[in-house]
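User: Predict the structure for this protein chain, please.
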Amino acid sequence: MIKKFLLASTLFLSVSLFACGQEHQKSENWLTGFNQAEKTTVLLNNDEGVLPLKNLEGRKIACIDLGFSHHIVLDSMLNKYSKADHFNGNMYHSDHDFKGLVDELKFYNTVILSLSDVSVFDEDVMSFILEMQQKKTAIVALFGDGKSLTKLNSITAP
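Assistant: Here is the predicted structure, written as C-alpha cells:
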C-alpha cells in the first residue's frame, strides 16, 4: 500500500513539476520578447508633447489598421486607457484615396495609424497619413524593421 502511494505521489509530482516547467519557459520567452520590444521602441517627432496623450475625456480616438497584423493587441491595449474605435484601413484602400475612411473619421480628433514596415511603401497609404496629420492629431505607430523609417521622412506626426 505504501509503495502504491509513493508511486502515485511521485507520478503526480513529476507531472506537476513538468507542467510548471513549461509555464516557466513560456513566461520566460514572453519576458524576453517584451524586453526586446522595449529596447527597440523609439519615439520620434514628439516636440509638441502629443505623447503621452492627455485630456483623454476630451478625445475621440480612432485606431486605424493600415497593414499591422497584430492590430487587435494594439486596440486592446489602447482601450485599457481610453475608448478607441477600430477601423480597418485596408477596406478603404481599394478606392486609392481613402475617401470613405476620411468621411468616417470626421467626428474623431485623434487618429492612431498602425502600419507595418511593408505598408510604408504604398503611396496611397503615405498620402492618407499626410492628410491625417494635417486634419487631426495623428500618431503613427510603425511596427517592423526600423529601416522603413526612412520612408516616413515627410511625416511630422509622432
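The CA atoms of residues 13 and 19 lie 10 Å apart.
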